[in-house]
């Protein structure tokens, strides 16, 4: 083992290819002291924030937004509930990164992909906070501080680790992309779950992009109205998770599926996050579909169907078992003897 000045422990025996396949065991690789504890704390932070969004949506509405609302629209509760689902998925992702840290996989494309998903999700969320505070002027300073308390660690921790592992380098990015693409083009196994993850990655990216750039329009297409600028902020925060966080999760699960590794720990944790998040979105969108007419809200059934597929994919992923190994013939006692 060799120590470098940054405090990062590496091994000359670590390889980029095999390590990605051995995500269920400890191997020689990149270890950053304290990273496991920090990802555990980040997971707990996301979990606590999600619980707060779930149990106190109207209180958070009063804290986050200017112009005190005597009777907040029900849309606020629904959007905070969706954001809770996002944060619970974030908690699962942070715990998955804790597992990769324990197993010295911080320099692997699998880990860097999840870290980049966190970084871009948190960065867009932070920009949204600043835009709505300084330019749109609907967010309060307390809203910025509370939001930053969750978003800033989600941004900074992966940024530091990506810097130490070389995950921001162009060569590393291209290598990770080519590795993942190669696994998709030449899969070791095919599964329905893998197909669903691929489909969901594309859907998350497209829908997330639309929500971020067209918040009011997509709110109209989903809920039938948008209720002003405040709900747009929450909706764009959710859209950023679609575009970056969830797409990173499903792409990672796609790649794990095609190399036959869905049964390992990291994919299991990520699938738990998807399953929990899907329940929140299905409950919200399903209630709207079955309790009110869909006329003019064409995006609503699309999102409902999308999250049903997420639920199905996560269940299939959680039920995945190790691939059957080749049978090695052992001669019977005395066989081959005269």
Automatic annotation (TrEMBL):
Q: Which domain of life is it from?
A: Eukaryota
Q: Kindly state which keywords UniProt assigns to this record, in alphabetical order.
A: Membrane, Transmembrane, Transmembrane helix
Look up the coiled coil feature and give its residue ranges: none
Segments crossing the lipid bilayer: 38-58, 79-97, 117-135, 142-174, 194-214, 234-253, 273-291, 298-320
Q: Region Disordered: start and end of each range?
A: 1-20
Residue ranges, compositional bias (Polar residues): 1-14
**Stated name of the protein:** Transmembrane protein
Q: Which organism is it from?
A: Auxenochlorella protothecoides (Green microalga)
């Amino acid at each position: 083992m060799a120590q470098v000045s940054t405090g990062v422990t590496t091994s000359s025996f670590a390889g980029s290819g095999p390590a990605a396949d051995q995500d269920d065991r400890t191997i020689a690789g990149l270890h950053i002291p304290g990273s496991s504890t920090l990802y555990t704390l980040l997971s707990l932070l996301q979990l606590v924030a999600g619980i707060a969004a779930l149990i106190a949506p109207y209180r958070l509405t009063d804290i986050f937004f200017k112009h005190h609302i005597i009777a907040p629209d029900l849309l606020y509760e629904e959007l905070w509930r969706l954001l809770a689902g996002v944060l619970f998925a974030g908690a699962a992702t942070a715990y998955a990164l804790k597992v990769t840290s324990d197993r010295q996989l911080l320099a692997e494309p699998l880990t860097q992909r999840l870290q980049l998903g966190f970084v871009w999700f948190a960065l867009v969320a932070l920009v949204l906070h600043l835009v709505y505070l300084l330019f749109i002027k609907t967010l309060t300073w307390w809203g910025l501080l509370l939001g930053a308390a969750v978003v800033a660690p989600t941004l900074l921790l992966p940024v530091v680790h990506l810097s130490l592992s070389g995950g921001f380098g162009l060569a590393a990015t291209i290598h990770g992309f080519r590795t993942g693409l190669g696994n998709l083009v030449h899969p070791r196994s095919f599964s329905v779950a893998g197909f669903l993850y691929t489909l969901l990655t594309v859907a998350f990216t497209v829908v997330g992009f639309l929500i971020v750039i067209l918040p009011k329009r997509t709110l109209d297409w989903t809920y039938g109205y948008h209720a002003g600028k405040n709900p747009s902020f929450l909706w764009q925060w959710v859209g950023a998770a679609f575009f970056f966080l969830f797409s990173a999760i499903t792409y990672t699960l796609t790649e794990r599926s095609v190399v036959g590794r869905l049964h390992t720990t990291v994919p299991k944790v990520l699938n738990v996050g998807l399953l929990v998040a899907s329940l929140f979105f299905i409950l919200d969108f399903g209630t709207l579909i079955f309790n009110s007419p869909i006329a003019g809200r064409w995006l609503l059934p699309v999102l409902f169907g999308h999250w049903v597929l997420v639920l199905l994919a996560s269940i299939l992923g959680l039920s995945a078992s190790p691939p059957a190994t080749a049978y090695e013939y052992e001669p019977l006692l005395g066989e081959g003897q005269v």
